[in-house]
Design goal:
The chain contains twelve helices and eight strands. The protein is of the alpha+beta class. Helix 5 packs antiparallel against helix 8 and helix 5 runs antiparallel to helix 11. It is 63% helix and 16% strand. The two termini are 71 Å apart. Strands 2-3-4-5-7-8 form a six-stranded antiparallel beta sheet. It has two domains: 317 residues, Outer membrane efflux proteins (OEP) (Up-down Bundle); 114 residues, no CATH class.
């Protein structure tokens, strides 16, 4: 082979070597030139926004939270104002044993009432009524008669459910349950967002690995063409030519595998974005980049404790168990109900005069009552009280467990990032050395001082080193997303709105 041809081959190899260490993925110009009609270029931020808007798991999580929130109004409905109305008509012509009662009595009655329970447990009510009675008894003084009445009453629990403690406690527990439901929904939303971001970086990895594979295929084809020329000149054996041809097929096999992985990575991302056109080509705009810094676990721990939703849920559960214990302590008390009512009425032949007499006359009816009831053994209430006490203790232990596990998870996550940062540095050096080794061996082969087996093995070593470097870059991005997921900071960055 002539020197001119060999120099041309060296220039091609050097050009390919420069491409190996270029940023991952395709450049902006390449993306625009290669992009078909059904292609879309997306950044990580755009993917995150599309996932938050379109992902079906995220939408389901939102609706789960909205459904759970309806429990709040249901719990507070105990304090709703109640309107009661009653109308009835009685025509009594039944036979009686007294001649004074008459043989026919007609009663028309109308009642209207309002009642409301307050957070203090106090129930206030007002009732107004009008009753018309007529009969054919000769001994009735007023016939027909209209009785107008107004009654005010108050009911106050003084023992069990002392001043509405149980109703207020149930509402507080419901609100804590709703808050925990919101935390769970946000966590599921954030997990779906994290999955979309990891799948995005996996797509970046697939493009980079496919690019590396194609570059190595090009070098394998160049080597095979060179081997053909040297075989014609009798410089190599036929077995070396077979090896060079097998090497090309092996590189094509790797390219086919990575092309399939690219398709899977793209479809997984489209699934997260709920994009129905699976023929669409997605080209990522972002490339792998790392921050050359050491993360301190203690600093991250301070951020996590105040924001981690699993920890906040455990705190809310402990508070709810404490409220429940207070309710069960109160339920051990006897039921002591204080009641007071004040009524006034007016009685006349005419309805208008009857109502006028309600205020004009003084016909009060005052009732005061105190009712006490309690089972002597009271075993049911005491059993619920003991259960509530144990549940609160268990919730406290669960909170401590959550805090400890969170501390371990943060330390592990931070160490994973630091480890992968160090791993990338090693892989960068390895890839550089393997590329240097391959370039040197290609020169030796061109000058007839090497063989096919060595060159093919060196190509394999360089390919694996570059693929390992790309994989370690992906693992770093994955670890970064997982740490943000642990810190619950992903939504703060991409979804600052409230749920």
């Amino acid at each position: 082979m002539g020197k001119k041809y060999k120099g041309f081959v060296v220039i091609i190899i050097a050009f390919l070597c420069l491409g190996v260490f270029a940023p991952s993925g395709l450049s902006g110009q390449e993306k625009q030139a290669d992009a078909p009609v059904n292609s879309v270029t997306l950044s990580l931020r755009e993917v995150s926004r599309l996932a938050l808007d379109n992902n079906l798991d995220i939408q389901i999580s939102r609706y789960n939270a909205y459904i759970e929130r309806t429990r709040g109004k249901d719990a507070e409905s105990v304090f709703d104002t109640m309107l009661n109305a009653q109308v009835f008509y009685l025509n009594d012509q039944s036979k009686t044993g007294s001649t004074f009662a008459g043989t026919k009595t007609i009663i028309d009655e109308y009642k209207l009432g309002l009642s409301k329970k307050f957070p203090t447990g106090t129930t206030l009510s007002v009732d107004v009524g009008d009753t018309r009675v007529s009969n054919n008894s000769a001994f009735t003084t007023l016939n027909p008669t209209h009785e107008a009445s107004v009654k005010f009453s108050l009911h106050q629990p003084m023992g069990s459910n002392f001043f509405g403690l149980i109703e207020r406690g149930r509402i507080k527990i419901t609100r804590l349950d709703i808050a925990n439901s919101d935390f769970q929904a946000l966590s599921r939303i954030e997990q779906s967002l994290a999955r979309a971001q990891i799948n995005y970086w996996n797509l970046v990895l697939a493009y980079r690995q496919l690019k590396i594979s194609r570059q190595m295929l090009s070098r394998a084809e160049t080597f095979y063409e060179q081997a053909l020329d040297e075989k014609k000149l009798g410089m190599i054996e036929e077995a070396e030519l077979y090896a060079a041809q097998a090497n090309v097929l092996s590189r094509k096999n790797t390219e086919a595998t990575l092309t399939h992985q690219l398709l899977i990575a793209k479809n997984n991302l489209l699934l997260d974005l709920h994009e129905e056109d699976l023929n669409m080509r997605v080209i990522p705009l972002d490339v792998f980049a790392i921050k050359d810094e050491f993360i301190v676990a203690q600093e991250r721990m301070k951020q996590v404790i105040g924001k981690n939703r699993e920890y906040l849920q455990a705190k809310n559960s402990l508070e709810a168990k404490g409220i429940n214990l207070s309710m069960k302590d109160n339920s051990v008390w006897p039921e002591i109900d204080f009641e007071v009512s004040l009524a006034d009425n007016g009685l006349e032949l005419k309805q208008a005069k009857a109502w006028n007499n309600v205020t004009a006359e003084n016909n009060p009816e005052l009732f005061l009552g105190l009712t006490v009831s309690m089972p002597l053994e009271n075993r049911s209430a005491k059993s619920r009280q003991e259960k509530a006490r144990l549940e609160k203790t268990r919730a406290l232990v669960d909170l401590k467990k959550t805090e400890y596990k969170l501390m371990v998870d943060v330390i592990n996550a931070v160490d994973t990032i630091n480890n992968r940062t160090e791993k990338i540095k090693f892989n960068q050096q390895i890839a550089k050395l393997q590329e240097g080794k391959l370039t040197f061996e290609e020169k030796r082969f061109a000058s007839g001082r090497s063989n096919s087996d060595t060159l093919i093995r060196y190509q394999e070593d360089s390919l694996n080193a570059q693929l390992a470097l790309a994989q370690s870059l992906f693992e770093y991005e994955q670890a970064s997303v997982e740490l943000k997921l642990l810190e619950n900071s992903l939504l703060d960055e991409y979804y600052p709105e409230k749920l």
